[in-house]
Amino acid sequence: MDPRTVLITGCSSGIGLALAVKLAQDEQQRFKVIATMRNLAKREALEEAAGDALNRSLEIKELDVRSEQSIRDCVDSIPERHIDILINNAGVGLIGPIECQSIEDMQGVFETNFYGVVRMIKEVLPDMKRRRSGHILVMSSVMGLQGIVFNDIYAASKFAIEGFCESLMVQALMFDIHLTLIEPGPVVTEFEMKVYEDAIRGDYSKADPETADLFTHYYLRNSKAIFSSLGQTPDEIAEHTLRVLTMETPPFRHQTNQVYTPLTALKYADPSGHLVNDVFYKIVFQHDTLMQASLRAIKLLRWKVQKVQQGAKNLGFL
Ligand SMILES: NC(=O)c1ccc[n+]([C@@H]2O[C@H](COP(=O)([O-])OP(=O)(O)OC[C@H]3O[C@@H](n4cnc5c(N)ncnc54)[C@H](OP(=O)(O)O)[C@@H]3O)[C@@H](O)[C@H]2O)c1
């Protein structure tokens, strides 16, 4: 079978980079990857990671999801504009008290995380409909299912794209097009570093002292602990995505981190919202010591599991 053409956005780092490399280096050569990034000056890391696959099964092109022209130019440069799989990965974060964020900053998040995906889908959907085949994936987040304190705008952008995809899904089915939302929990990438560094430099004078203190002391410290104990690697997300891509009937939603599944299910257990709000309030503000201890225990357990898996691999069992 001919390899399937996959276009991925945001491949200069993190999940996009890992995914582009994983698909391009597929032993069964099932994919031809068009790895895109908005700034080609950042291509070096991808070129290095791609190794032999570069310019064979992986091609790098420029694409900025905030520009319709940039998207059109990139898609037009692909023979017959033929894209079998579109992976909307590009995304930006924003954390902090909303009193301290400008409307322009908030709109910027939606321009990339929501309208960026909408622009991409608008560009490739008509071709996929004509061919009556295709698979569109969106790198959403567990924050597309459950809001998290001080991530108000980022979560809203992911909720928005989830609602968009839920609505489009039924129409896509009519044309044999698959649509999948990948929903990772925390992933250790530059994403976390970028938002964290912005947050450290932030000016919180527009927030009242109590809110500023909750964010800078409570939230930032806990967020660091959560990433270091529950965070997955970009490669793990790439592995999950590969699995989804090769399924005969891909799921509409796929969560990559099982620890988060019960938390995202709470709101459905009690439609009034009391249960989920109560649980999050207590976890964040009342049982801080217990949460820190649990995170440390999880980190230790994951480290042990990784050691056992590595040992089994070395002995040839995996
Ligand atoms: N890290 C997490 O904890 C986590 C968890 C759940 C979901 N996600 C989602 O996973 C996706 C990838 O994030 P990541 O963790 O891999 O972060 P990352 O390392 O910061 O990668 C984000 C990528 O998006 C690109 N990008 C930003 N704006 C763009 C634009 N206008 N046009 C094209 N590309 C653009 C960035 O390019 P530049 O280098 O040019 O900025 C970068 O290549 C995002 O959608 C994010 O929301 C991340």
From TrEMBL:
One of its GO terms (cellular component) is cytosol. The keyword 4Fe-4S does not apply. It comes from the Eukaryota. NADP(+) binds at residues 10-38, 64, 158. Pfam families: adh_short. GO terms for molecular function: estradiol 17-beta-dehydrogenase [NAD(P)+] activity. PROSITE patterns: ADH_SHORT. InterPro entries: 17beta_DH, NAD(P)-bd_dom_sf, Sc_DH/Rdtase_CS, SDR_fam. One of its GO terms (biological process) is estrogen biosynthetic process. Keywords: Lipid metabolism, Oxidoreductase. The active site is at 154 (proton acceptor). The keyword Magnesium does not apply. Substrate binds at residue 141. Belongs to the short-chain dehydrogenases/reductases (SDR) family. This is Retinol dehydrogenase 8.
